[in-house]
Amino acid sequence: MKALAFFIAALLLTTITFAQDKITPAAPGVTYGKTITADKAIDVTALNKTLNTDSVYKGRVTGKVVEVCTKKGCFMKIARENASPVMIRFTDYAYFMPQNIVGKTVVVEGKANVKETSVARLQHYAADAGKSKDEIAKITQPKKDIEIMADGVLVVD
Length: 157
Prior knowledge:
It comes from Mucilaginibacter pineti. Residues 1-19 form the signal peptide. By secondary structure, the protein is of the alpha+beta class. The chain has one domain: CATH 2.40.50. The protein has 4 helices and 7 strands; from the N terminus they run αββαββββααβ. Helix 2 (44-53) links the parallel strand 2 (42-43) and strand 3 (56-68). The longest helix is centred in the first third of the chain and has 16 residues, at 2-17. It starts with a helix and ends with a strand.
């Protein structure tokens, strides 16, 4: 019985370790999750304005990827002028992003809202992004910011 449990644990570890190898590299036209188009996508500046008056935005948002989870691509961030990047997670972790998506322009479709992220969660994201222990230790306050739960991602360029 112990041998079977060890085998299953080793199999799961191997699957997680090599998960990035099975993700299609980012290139123009490639989609992840739900297949979407760039039609009616707003930029991050327009999203900021919308969320100043509405609590939720459902639709498409375009932006440039500035960070992706280095462990398995379980989140990414898109740039925002004069503010911290917008966190994007994926509905039910149904798909992941390749490492080469950083620097690409994407369209994400989903639900955006302003959310407070706990210190523990911020530290977890920082660790997944490959930040140093010193950088992680400097995270001592929760953060209120825009987060998008994406159903699909389209690489534009």
